[in-house]
Amino acid sequence: MENELRAEITLSSPDVPAALIDELLPKLAGDALGKALGTRGEGRLIRHELHGDKLTLEIASTGGRPHQPLLSVVRKLGEELGRRAKVGVRSVTVLRYRLTFAVEPMPTKPVPLAIPHHLSFADGRATLELLDLPEEALRDNWPDRAATLVEEKARRQSYAGKEQAWELIEQSPKREHAGRDDPTEAMLKRNWVRSGPTKGKWFLGPLPAHLLRTMERIAREEVLAPLGFLEVMQPHHDSFDILVKTGHLEGLPGEFYYVTEPKSRDPADWERFTDLVAITRKVPHDELAKLVSPPSAVACYAQCPTIYWWLSGRTLAVDDLPLKVYDRAAISNRYESGGRHGLERVDEFHRIEPVYLGTPEQLVALREALLARYRHVFETILELEWRTAWVTPFYLQQSGGVGLEEPGQRIRGTIDFEAYLPYRGPRETAEWLEFQNLSIVGEKYTRAFTIRAQKGELWSGCSGIGLERWLTAFLAQKGLNADDWPDRFRKYVGELPKDVKFL
Ligand code: ATP
Ligand code: ZN
Ligand code: MG
Question: Quick one: which of 36, 173, 350, 436 has the fewest CB in 10 Å?
Answer without folding.
Answer: 173
